[in-house]
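Reminder to self: C-alpha cells first, then the designed residues, so the page reads top to bottom the way the pipeline ran.
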C-alpha cells in the first residue's frame, strides 16, 4: 500500500475506482470533505435527472458569483433545498481506497487540472457551462462621476421609509384570512 495519499478538494468532481465498493466500483463524486481517513461526497451516479439539473445550476450560480462556501454550509444547503440528494446519494468513502481523477473543477479554481479524456455527458455539460471563458467576470461600476455616488447616498437618506408608506384606501381587498387586526 502506498504511503502517498491524495486528498480530494471540496467542491470538485472526481471519477475513478473505489476498492471497497458495494454498489458502484467507479463512483463520480462531488466532494464534500476529505481527510486522511474519510472522504464525504455526493455520488452523482445515484442522482435522478432533476437532482442533477439542480446541482449543475447550483454549481454554475456559485462559480459565476465567485461565492466562497465550505462543505458544512453546502451540506446544510442540500438538506434544506434538496434533501433527496442527501438521502439517495451522500456517501462516505475510505480515502486511501479511492483512486480518483479530477474531471470537473466544480466551484474550485482547479480548471487547468481537469482530466480531459472523461466522456460523461453530465460532466461535459457542467464543464462547458463553468469554463472560465463562459463565466464573464463583469466589473460593476458603482458611479460614473465623482458626484453621482454622493447624490445617490443623499437620495437614499432622504427617501421615505417603506414601512411608513401608506397606499390609498383599499378596503378589505386582499386581506389574508390568517391576518388578525
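Designed residues (181 positions):
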Amino acid at each position: 500500500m502506498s504511503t502517498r495519499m491524495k486528498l480530494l478538494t471540496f467542491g470538485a468532481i472526481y471519477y475513478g475506482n473505489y476498492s471497497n465498493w458495494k454498489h458502484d466500483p467507479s463512483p463520480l463524486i462531488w466532494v464534500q470533505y476529505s481527510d486522511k481517513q474519510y472522504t464525504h461526497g455526493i455520488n452523482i451516479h445515484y442522482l435522478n435527472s432533476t437532482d442533477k439539473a439542480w446541482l449543475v445550476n447550483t454549481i454554475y450560480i456559485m462559480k459565476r458569483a465567485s461565492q466562497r462556501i465550505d462543505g458544512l454550509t453546502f451540506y446544510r444547503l442540500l438538506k434544506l433545498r434538496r434533501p433527496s440528494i442527501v438521502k439517495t446519494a451522500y456517501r462516505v468513502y475510505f480515502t486511501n481506497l479511492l483512486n480518483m481523477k479530477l474531471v470537473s473543477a466544480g466551484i474550485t479554481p482547479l480548471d487547468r487540472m481537469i482530466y480531459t479524456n472523461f466522456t460523461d455527458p453530465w460532466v461535459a455539460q457542467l464543464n462547458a457551462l463553468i469554463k472560465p471563458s463562459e463565466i464573464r467576470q463583469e466589473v460593476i461600476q458603482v458611479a460614473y462621476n465623482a458626484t453621482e455616488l454622493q447624490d445617490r447616498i443623499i437620495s437614499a437618506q432622504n427617501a421615505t421609509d417603506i414601512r411608513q408608506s401608506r397606499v390609498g384606501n383599499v378596503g378589505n381587498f386582499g386581506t389574508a384570512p390568517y391576518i388578525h387586526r
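The first helix runs from residue 49 to 64.
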